[in-house]
Amino acid sequence: MTSINTDAPVIPGRLEQLSTRIAFFIAGFSVSAWAPLVPYAKARVGLSDGTLGLLLLSLGIGSIITMPLTGVLSSRFGCRRVLVLSTLVICLCLPLLATVSSPWWLMATLLVFGASMGALDCTINIQAVIVERASGKTMMSGFHGLFSLGGIVGAAGVSGLLSVGASPVLAMAVVAAIIIVVLLRAAPHFLAYGSKSDGPAFVVPHGVVLFIGLLCVIVFLAEGAMLDWSAVFLSSTRQVDAAYAGMGYSVFALTMTCGRLLGDAVVRKVGANRVIILGGLCASAGFALATWIPLWQAALLGYALVGVGCSNIVPVLYSAAGRQTVMPEQIAVPAISTLGYAGILAGPALIGFVAQISSLNLAFMIIAVLLLGVAASGRVLKV
Fold this sequence. Notes:
Helix content is 78%, strand content 0%. It is mainly alpha-helical. It has two domains: 14-189, MFS general substrate transporter like domains (Growth Hormone, Chain: A); 207-377, MFS general substrate transporter like domains (Growth Hormone, Chain: A, Up-down Bundle), CATH 1.20.1250.
């Protein structure tokens, strides 16, 4: 009798595609579930705004620590093990984030939570590159669309539970239970392997990988501006009541999610390069519209354009990272993710610095100009 090698890589098919979509949903659902808890954690631990800001950096620091290591881990142990382990650690962290009352324990929990999110984020993109390549079709926008959808469901779901009187601990227990149930459905079809490991564990990004990473920094900077500054702009510059200023980010998130869910068909129709060109122009126009026309309605329309424009640029760039030959993908994808995440972390602070010495209008216009550069890159980047 001949033995069957159960460790042989399985060519990804429909089940692996579905599991990848579920993994992206879990990632978006997990990170957004924490957002409604921030005010509760601030009050429970007794933090000032400044101290809270410093503690929240722990989440980003944890992510940046693990992201460069994820490629070699997925190559050595397979995407499935990394995805399952990081997701289970997230499920352990969520109830702790709802209960810890010491600043040091909160910082440690956020560090571990961020590290797990970083590992999850990089590994799902590595699996997505492999699955998309095996399918021979454009799929990356749809994958990222499930992340955005998970973010909306997570934030809205936790906010809904809290609004009807559920305690933060109960809300996080429900979130963790949902994640585990969904994980049990998807885990058998996560890839038991990763990208081929034919290089060192870490290399400083260079060539086209560095170029792609810098483009991601700009797009993530624009997304970070929407997350952290869209409400501030509406309330302080357009005199919108603070209770309604959050609708700006909601409009952005909605158009971003819709754009990504429809993005695969758009990329196939108009081509990846045109998606970058038109997306960069659309997002730049959105920032300009919000800045130049002194009406809150114009700002909302501008935010919607930013969401549409940015929605498919990053997925296209991740696909390009999987096709380039300058660096192995298990190094290139984490490197791009790390650079992009650095943009999310540093961007809001830089925007605040520009706003402090000049105005938030100028900060938004600087981003608009940078997005024009992204649009111009679509003419030269081979995607």
